[in-house]
Amino acid sequence: MTRIIFIESDGTRHEVDAEPGATVMEAAVNNMVPGIDADCGGACACATCHVYIDEAFTDKTGTAESMEESMLDFASDMKTNSRLSCQINISKEMDGLIVRLPRSQG
Fold first, then answer.
1. pLDDT tens-digit profile of 50-104?
2. How far, in whole angstroms, is CA 6 from its chain's centroid?
3. Could you give the C-alpha distances from 58 to 34, 37, 63, 90, in angstroms and in order?
4. Element (H, E) at 7
5. In terms of CB atoms within 10 Å, which end of the chain has fewer, N or C?
6. What is the DSSP letter of 14?
7. Residue 60 sits in which domain range?
């Protein structure tokens, strides 16, 4: 299992264990983390699973591909470390991943 720490915009923390191979969005939804709407169910067709990846983990989570970059244009308050959580596949190397949630989605 890989531990992921979700931090809401108000500072509330949610630590969850996730299976490698799942997505960060699936880990949030399966553990009822508030703030990840995931309206499209992980199809990279909306921006309602927008998150900020902690700088210490950006090399482990990879970079956004063109479709994800296009969807991020619809995200509120986009930053350089913005990603769609449905596009990040969890690996064992991500243990302790810190994911911050925006104040609102889409």
1. 999 999 999 999 999 999 999 999 898 999 999 999 999 999 999 999 999 999 9
2. 8
3. 22, 22, 8, 13
4. strand 2-7
5. N
6. E
7. 2-100
Q: Is residue 105 part of a domain?
A: no
Q: Is residue 106 part of a domain?
A: no
3-state DSSP helix/strand/coil percent for the chain, to nearest 5?
25, 25, 50
Taking Cα atoms as reference points, which of 85, 54, 53, 56 lies closest to residue 68? 85
Q: Is 54 domain-assigned?
A: yes
Can you tell me the distance from the alpha carbon of 45 to that of 43, in angstroms, rounded to the nearest whole number?
5
> Mapping DSSP to helix (H, G, I), strand (E, B) and coil, where does residue 49 land?
coil
Token pair, residue 105, equals 């989605």
CATH number at residue 63: 3.10.20.30
Backbone φ and ψ of 59, nearest 5°? -70, -25
Q: What is the C-alpha to C-alpha distance for residues 64 and 66, in angstroms, rounded to an integer? A: 7
SS3 8: coil
Domain-located, residue 15: yes
